[in-house]
Amino acid sequence: MRHIILFFGIFLYTTAHAQNPAANPDIPQHDPPVTKQVNKTIGEAGNDTEFDMAPETTIKVVRSALASLNIPLPAGPFQPTWESIEANYKVPGWLQQAKFGICMHWGLYAVPAYHNEWYEKHMYGSKGIMEWHQKTFGPQETFGYKDFIPMFTMDKFNADAYADLFKKAGAKFIMPACQHHDNFALWDSKVTPYNSMQMGPKRDLIGELSIAVRKQGMKFGFTNHGIENFQFINPPQEMLDKMKAAKADLFDPKWADFYNVADRSDEACRKFLVNWFQRNVELINKYKPDILWFDNGIDQRYLDPLKVQLAAYYYNTAKKWGKDVTINTKKAAFAPAGTNINTIGSILDFENKVPPGIRTGVWDVDVPIGSSWGYTEGMRVDSAGSILKRLIDIVSKNGIMILNLSPKADGTIPENQQQSLLGVGEWLAINGEAIYGTHSWVKFKDDENNNIRFTVKGNNLYAIILGKMQGETVTISSLAKNKVKGKISSVNILGAKDKPLYKQDEAGLTIQLPKQAQLSKYAFVVKIEGLQMNASTYTTSGNPMPE
After folding, report:
1. Which contiguous run of DSSP H or E holds residue 290?
2. Which of 34, 63, 117, 400 is geometrically suited to a Cys-Cys bond with 364, CB 3.0 to 4.6 A?
3. Which residues contact residue 36 at a Cβ distance below 8 angstroms, ignoring those fewer than 6 apart?
4. pTM (2 decimals)?
């Protein structure tokens, strides 16, 4: 994953429709800037080129790859056009209800466990990390990234134990990475030899986990970062020359299709794109994912022909399964009009950035459990309270949180990550009523107290008070008599034994708190009945409601 994404602020750019790739089929073209004012409150944005990670190729190469696929489109209502996908797509109801899911970065980069999950890129191109690698493992030409594969044992991986932990954490869906930028597939594949069944663990990690997760009643999908591999590694010329002269590592013919460094011709890119599509089709057919999430590499418009073909394949196939599924993407990857408020056939994902205000529709935020996405030695891990604070904030704004875990190369999930997860689950076991199946109220936080967030379910309003409150009372100013419609008929604190005393006046709703021992140290929830609530802010397209 990339680490810096600018979602907010006012950006000026020309609409993506102004781009006409067919006019210059031999020239690589990124999306042009967009020239309309975007709504920063809801995180509206388009594609950018700084971190798009897409293969630097042309619409001509993309169309050639599409023409050579020889993979029939399954029968069904979806055709490979934006118009057809828009007409037939509907956000799965289960996802709108879920509110909390888990993803994972697990892979070869957990072996060195240094810097971050982009270790492969940095060990060939960042001075300090290149030197650290040489001191720790030897020169890159004698110990390359491929040499981590046998060390990625996953010998302590227990899919049932993972699934049990996720269930206890309160997650409703699980989506581990099936491959990262490094091109190593974590499933039993027949379309790439670089996979966890033939190498390294000698196990179908995705397959094992999919079975275990579904046994626990959770939905299962995966994140796919594979398209970013084609130009992920960019060594300095000195290293390239050294490797090329020795025909080592990056230039070893046996590993050419693993690294995609030695040959970046149009023909090599065409083959890469064909294989990317084949891998996705294999994943779809083998594991029947409920959600298929893509990283930044598919954002650019010149990849649209492949994207709509894959979307139609996935959605028609899911129709045969009788399952409601979705694709999940970033920025304007599935928004041909140019900005993410017009996404078609995909849920929008914000990476580690939360819109500053309520965004109606359906969207999610993926967040790391600590200081890195992939496991690194000594990484900081967030407490359960910190994770819950983010979850509550995201849900109050109408979003879904996807928490990323970082397992070790032996398959263990570090104890501090497990404890944080279990703390989240303990809180949700008592207070999940205010999270699952909710939508945003007319405001996401209290007028005066920034530690109070709101959610709605049916006719019930939930006020979630962050942290362990000091004092004997709490006042919610947004619920003053002159600010809300209806008459409060009941006030309860979830998990507390006794009903609290309360009064509502022009200052707000003031609640007499029970003994502190009855309240969670992370947050507690006040359930308010009798007020007139707003309708659901869910949309079938996932896009924000018209203003």
Report:
1. none
2. 400
3. 12, 13, 15, 338, 339
4. 0.94
